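Most newcomers find our protein records easier to grasp once they have seen one. A record pairs a protein's sequence with a compact description of its fold. An example says more than a description, so a record of this kind follows:
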Amino acid sequence: MSRWDDDEDPKDTTEGVRIIGADEAAEAVERGDVAPRRGEGELRFGDRPASPPEGVRPAVRFPLPAEDDAAAGVDRPEPRSAPERPAPAPAAPPVLPHWTEPPTGEVAKIFPEDPGAPDDDVDDADLEAWSSFATSGPRWRDSAGDWAEPDYDADAIRADDSTRLGALDDRDRPAPGDYFFEAPVAEEPPVIRTGVRPTPPAPADDGGERDMPVAIGIGAALAALFLLLLSVGPGAVMFLVAGVLVLAAAELYAGLQRGGYQPATLLGLVAVGAMSGAAYWKGETALPLVLALAAVFSLLWFLVGVTRQNPTMNAAVTLLGIAYVGLLGAYAALILRVPDGRGDGRGILIGVIVAVVANDVGAFVIGRQAGRAPLAPTISPHKTVEGTIGGALAGILVSFLVLGIIGVTPWDGGSALALGLVVAVMAPLGDLAESMIKRDLGVKDMGTVLPGHGGILDRFDALLFCLPATYYLARVLDLF
C-alpha cells in the first residue's frame, strides 16, 4: 500500500518537550536554532500531503500489485487454501495396571470352616501354613547374631523333588564339583601328542659364502694329521676316527636339543665310541650287538626316569644319532682292521677319502661358476644339478688318475673307476641327508669346530654314506 493513501491515519507527531526559560529562549532565537511559526495552511513536520509530489515515484512494498506482475511477464499462481483435514479421533484412555486401582479396604480372610465349601476344596496343609503367618509376629534382626542362621530350612528346600520351573530349574547345570575353578590345577599342562612337531624357522641364509683361505688351511691341517697318524699305524688312525665320530655325534645331539628334543646324549656318545672300538676289535659281528644294547639302554634311560619328557620320540632320536653317526662311521674301523696279508686297509681308506674330497671340491667349484638349476631347493637351496654333475666327474677323474694310474694299494684302474662311480652316487645323498636334518631342526651348521667348514658333521656327512659303500665294494672286488 502506498504511503500517500488518503485513508491512512495521520502519523503521531508528538515529541518530547523541555520547558525553558525566557533568557534561554532569547539566546536560541539569536542563534537561529528556533524555527519560525508556520502559518495555518503550511505543512508541518509529520504531515502528509493529499497527493504525492510530481516527478517522484512512491516506494513499492511487497506483495506487488497484480498489474506490476502482468507488466513484468510474471504469472502469479492463484492462492489456495490448505486442505481441510478430518479431526483426529479422541484417543482411548490408557489402561492402568490393577495395582493402580483405589484400595477397597477389604482384607483377604480364610474361612477354614466355610459351610458352603465342599470338603474336596479344603486343603488342611495350606490352612495350617496360612494360619502360622497369622499367629506369628514379625521377626526383627537387631544384632549380628540374628543373621547367623537363616530363617528357612535349607535341607528341606534341597530335598524338595517337585518340578522346578524357570530359574529354579537346574537340571541342565553342571554339578558344583564340575566347575573348572574348583578343580585342582595340574603342575604341568597335559601334552597333546599329535605326531607332528612344530616346524622350526628356516635357518638364516648367508648366500653360501665361506671363508675360503681359512677353509683351505683347516683342510690341509686335517690331511696332514691324517697322514701323520697313518704313518704310525692303523691303531693310531683308529683313535682319530673314534674322536671324530664322537664329536660329530655330540654336534648332532646338540642340534636335536636346539630343535626341541631331549635325547640321551651321554648314552649316545658312549654308544658311538663303543661301536667304532668294537668294530675295530671284533669286526662286523660286533655291530648288531652294540646296536641292540644301545636300543635296550636307550629305552631304560627313559624308563628309570633319567629323562621323562616324550620318551618315545626322544628314544628314537637317540638311536638315530647312534645309527647315523656311530654305525655308518664304524665302517672306517672295519676298513682299518683289514690285515696287510689280504689287502691294505689304510690304502682303501685313503682311496675313499680322496674320491670324496675330489667330489666335494668339484661340486663346489662347478656349482659356483656354472650352477643354475637347483638340485633340491626345499632341502639345500645352494646345491645345483650342474655342481652335482661336475663333482661326480671330478671324483671319477681324480680317483682314476690318483688311485689307478699313480697307484695306491690295493686300487687299480678298474677298481678306482668303480670307486669314483660309487662315490658320485653316495656323496650327494649323504650331503642332502644331513642338509635335510639341519633344515628340519632349523639350524644352518651343526657346529663351529672347523672354521670355514662349520662343524665336523658338516665336513664328513658325505663320507658317512661312502664308507659302507666302499667297504662292500672292496669286498665285491675282492680287494681284501
Notes: The two ends are 141 Å apart (CA to CA).
